[in-house]
Amino acid sequence: MKILGVLGGMGPAATVAFLARVQVLTPAQGDADHIRVLMDMNPQVPDRNRTADQAEAVLGQMAGRLRDAGAEILAMPCNTAHAQAAGIRAAGLPFIDMIAETTAVVVQTLASRAGAKRVGILATPGGEALYVAALTAAGLEPVLLEGPDREAFMARVYGVKAGEMGEAARGRMAQLAAGLVARGADAVIAGCTEVPLLLGPGDVTVPLVDSAEVLAGACVRACLQA
Q: How many whole angstroms separate alpha carbon 135 and alpha carbon 119?
């Protein structure tokens, strides 16, 4: 069993929820069957959208510290920060790519639905750009938030970081997802780890692919692989 190193804190609530997913998805009969996790919960990582170079430097330092502490595989439950993944990979450990893993699940999800190729994206501008590139390369068509909906989405993301996860916030996120479906999305990616704290599969009329859930499953498989 390999030791998982998690670069966390972007944001804290999403990181805690991710770790809970890892625990739930691990096929364990007792404590010793679970994955050993080393985590750096660092909410002080510089803004991934505004100060990318600074963020990459800090993420690289975090990855190095996790490696030196004994981590054998790295993962980061933040879609946006994958734009700075080069700094993490420089630590020399396998890094599970959340964007690639999620895109693969979307491709698999739509494979059985004839003609389905339009994918709605609920993500920050940085995460959205990563998913647009990945989905396009996979032959799929991204459907993006537009106009006021983009601002409303970011307000909900920052609201989660401030502890706002009540019914009003949940309802607004569901409306944003419904807007993507109304514009032809055959599936929707929860491409920001704050999204699943407000939105579940039952809130969307098409398949919802939760990037945090996908990453957690990939971490379990990688760490338990013989």
A: 8
192 is catalytic: yes
Q: What is the pLDDT of residues 57-107, one digit of tens each?
A: 999 999 999 999 999 999 999 999 999 999 999 999 999 999 999 999 999
184's torsion region: left (phi>0), alpha (psi -120 to 50) or beta? left
In terms of Cα–Cα distance, which of 213, 220, 218, 182 is closest to 195?
Answer: 213
- The neighbouring-strand residues paired with 153 are none
Is the domain defined by 99-211 classed in CATH 2.40.50.100? no
Place of tokens 């996908």: 214
Burial of 10 per CB tally in 10 Å (0-12, 13-18, 19+): buried
* Residue from 105, 192, 220, 223 carrying the catalytic annotation: 192
Q: 162-181: per-residue pLDDT in tens?
A: 999 999 999 999 999 999 99
CATH topology for 4-97+214-224 is Rossmann fold (3.40.50)
Q: Is 219 a catalytic residue?
A: no
